């Protein structure tokens, strides 16, 4: 299950799990005594406002297609490292019903329990990778990350995965934690206030204007008022529109989605994660690199 209750986020790209040790546990046990929010997957519109196609990168044709599109705008070594993670994941969970070639996209639902069992049988001590880890792998050579102070309080599962999977060296791990740091904010449901805080924070980083980082920012008040990037992916232009690449969560698959416009991609993210909020918390909002998408 994927829900957000006041102060605690479950499922999604990350779970803020004080007291729980893995995203899989959070997804299976999350229930709220306070509110019954609609899950993000079920909140997606039956008739989406976008025209798109998608793949889980589970066929040779789709891999070659997406690899070529990403390589046009991203560092080759970064793309190769990303696809190594894709292949490692898909080889284990391919029997869970992954989409091979590009197919019409509206919304997707996956058998998380089956995926979890397949993954755990192979990697009982490694939770895998999530959206932030994969986005960093793709973007790290196309952006500048300054040596600012980090707040990695909400990244403990990410960091456990990085350590147990030997994913990054010390330098990359530190840069990763700075990029996805928690950002202090105010006690308000006014998205404008929070968006300004996030713009100020992300303006410290130099982003690429072609390979863009699209972030879903959440408001949390479990331990003080804070913002954090709950989901993130990479958007690149194509001859026919845009390609958005994401890893949905530690357990859920990779998705590569072709949209006609970047606004369609924004709408997809806003729709999918609209219910990741709670009493006294601001609604999720989208950042395109360091700019708020209004």
UniProtKB/TrEMBL annotation:
Signal peptide residues on this chain, from the entry's feature table: 1-26
Keyword match Signal: yes
Top-rank lineage group of the source organism: Bacteria
Entry keyword Signal: yes
Pfam families tied to this protein: DUF4300
Residue ranges constituting the DUF4300 domain according to the UniProt record: 53-292
Stated name of the protein: Membrane protein
Species of the source: Streptococcus himalayensis
